[in-house]
Amino acid sequence: MDGMLFKTDRVSKQAAWRSLGAEFAETAAALDRAGTFPHDNLARLHEEALLGLTVAQEDGGQDAGLGRAASLVGAIAEGCAPTALIPILFTLRSG
């Protein structure tokens, strides 16, 4: 599914991001209890090419604006807040 959640229309994309958040919600409580980093969720974000969302295209990113990044973070945070921090950190680093 390499990057498929980014390559859909806006409405489908938001639904896909909510679905990803729901996927992350399945393990969120266990991650919280164990105090562990969400490695599998990071891998999923990478699979879907969502880590470079706000990175310029010439640098290998999606060149999306902060509004789109905020939509992604909001959808993911509904399922797993620690996982939602990952794209935020990538945005801060690339911004």
Structural class comes to mainly alpha
Mean pLDDT: 85
Radius of gyration (Å):
13 Å
Please tell me the CATH architecture by its name.
Orthogonal Bundle
Task: Indicate how many domains the architecture comprises.
Answer: 1
Q: Quick one: CATH superfamily?
A: Acyl-CoA dehydrogenase/oxidase, N-terminal domain
CATH top level assignment: Mainly Alpha
Q: Summarize the amount of helix as a percent range.
A: 55-70%
Give the total of beta strands: 0
CATH topology grouping: Butyryl-Coa Dehydrogenase, subunit A, domain 1
Distance between the termini: 26 Å
| Order of SSEs | HHHH
The biggest sheet, with number of strands, parallel, antiparallel or mixed sense and barrel status, is:
none
Q: Any overview of this molecule?
A:
With 95 residues, the protein is an all-alpha fold. The protein has a single domain (10-94), classed as Acyl-CoA dehydrogenase/oxidase, N-terminal domain (Butyryl-Coa Dehydrogenase, subunit A, domain 1). It contains four helices and no strands. It has helices at residues 10-34, 39-47, 66-77, 81-94. Helix 1 (10-34) packs across helix 3 and helix 3 runs antiparallel to helix 4 (81-94). The N and C termini lie far apart (26 Å).
